[in-house]
Structure formats: structure tokens, C-alpha cells
Amino acid sequence: MSIDTAPIGTDEDLRVRVRGASLSFGGHPVLERIDLDVRSGEFVVLLGPSGTGKTSLLRVLAGLQRPDGGEVLVPERSTFVYQEPRLIPSKRVLANVAIGLPRTEATRAAAAHALEEVGLAGRERSWPATLSGGEAQRVALARALVREPQLLLLDEPFAALDAIKRIEMQTLVAELVDRHGPAVVLVTHDIDEAIRLADRILVLNAGGIAYQHVPDSARPRDPADASLVPLRQRLLEELHIR
Ligand SMILES: Nc1ncnc2c1ncn2[C@@H]1O[C@H](COP(=O)(O)OP(=O)(O)OP(=O)(O)O)[C@@H](O)[C@H]1O
């Protein structure tokens, strides 16, 4: 078993390489021999019923959870965005974005720029309590981006937002990922979100990758597009929704 942050092999674009990763809790297998490669700029979406190990896999990729077996190679700079924004209430928005970074003028400027990129220019001195749920999640995104991650891990980051805000955030993330080019792994329960954003959709089931699909059109996609109906049906079947 190993987690390494060394440059991966000879493939310069490869950001994540997982081979045979297994994980169990109390004798209950959660991940079983997972293989996964993710390249720079690639947007991978993990779908799957509750309890199939999606968050556990993200935690392994973040280096927060050691697998029991297998090989995991990940980049040094990865950042995690959770379903809830996890802002520090006693720090202003700009300080939240810059949290943990050296307190320099360059950091301040980078944090202000990241806020601008997520549509929150002018809110640097706001307190987290004055933000809407969507705004708070934008701050969380800015906090992730300002670190210029090579790997961006998103764990149901839009699940708590209403349908309109969720689509706005999906559009924003698609733009930001194109501009910054990290490898992305997003966990979601939302089939439309997967169809809209993914370069590759993986369905996890009982700890393994049960189904994999690479849409042939460019992202972002309109999930209402008639050509995507068969994919949606297939994903519903894979998720045992009908
Ligand atoms: N630290 C832990 N200790 C013990 N069991 C755990 C731990 N973390 C996760 N599990 C168990 O591992 C299984 C997979 O959990 P995980 O959160 O990875 O699933 P998930 O697919 O992300 O679920 P959901 O869609 O509900 O968020 C669950 O049965 C969970 O209870």
C-alpha cells in the first residue's frame, strides 16, 4: 500500500494514478481494487448510490485516507471542496480565501482575484454570516482555486443549493476548470450534473467501478438535449433507479 506525491511515470499529463486500491472499515469492504487514471484538465464525475465509497475514494485521492492495499499516486497540490462551505465565521471573506497561505501582498492580490473569478468582487471584507448559501460556496471555490490545485476534489459541492443556483455554479465551475486546468474529480448524486460537466462518468457500486462512460460531445452539455436521453436512461439503470 502506498500514497505517493512523486511525479507520475513518464506521462506528464497524468495527475492521478490509482491501481488496485482497496479499503475496508471494520471488515466491511468499501473500495475493492479500484483502478483510476485522471489527466490534467480532465473532469471525472463519480456517481453511485449512497454508501458505495465515493467520498472514501475522494479522501484517498486527497491523501486523507490511506487505502489498505494498492498504489495511489496523486499530485502535491490538491484541494477539496465539500457540500458545506466550511468557512471560518470570525474571519472576513478575503481572509477565508487566503487561510493557511503566507500573509503577503501577493497572497492578498491572488485571493482578491480568485474572489473576482467566482463573481464576488467587492465582498472581500464581508463576514461569512452575511453571505447566501451560494455565495458562501463561491468563497469555498475561491479558497480552493487560489492554491492553483493540480487536482480539484469536489464532494457534492452544489447539493445544498436550489436548482437555479446549482446550474449557475456548474457553469462557473466548468469555466474555471477550463481556465485553470486542474484534474477534477466530482462526486454527485445528480445525473444531470454528471451529464453537464463530465469528460468521464464513473458509476460506483458496492465498492467497485460498475460502469464507465465517455460522452462524445464537448462539455458543458445541456442535459435536456435529446441526444443525451439514452445516456440518462443508462445512468438511471446503473443507479438502479428504474
Ligand atoms: N471513517 C469511517 N469509519 C467507518 N466506516 C466508514 C468511514 N468512512 C466511511 N465509512 C463507511 O464506508 C461506506 C462508504 O462511505 P462513503 O461515505 O465513502 O460512501 P458514499 O458513496 O460517499 O456515500 P454517500 O453518497 O451517502 O455520501 C459507508 O458504509 C460508510 O458508513
UniProtKB/TrEMBL annotation:
Q: Which Pfam families match?
A: ABC_tran
Domain ABC transporter per the UniProt entry, residue ranges: 16-231
Coiled-coil-forming residues are none
Q: Which residues cross the membrane?
A: none
Q: One GO MF term, please?
A: ATP binding
**The keyword Transport is annotated on this UniProt entry:** yes
The superkingdom listed in its UniProt entry is: Bacteria
Question: Which terms are listed as keywords in the entry?
Answer: ATP-binding, Cell membrane, Membrane, Nucleotide-binding, Translocase, Transport
* Stated name of the protein: ABC transporter ATP-binding protein
Per the UniProt record, the source organism is Leucobacter iarius
Q: What is the lineage of its organism?
A: Bacteria, Bacillati, Actinomycetota, Actinomycetes, Micrococcales
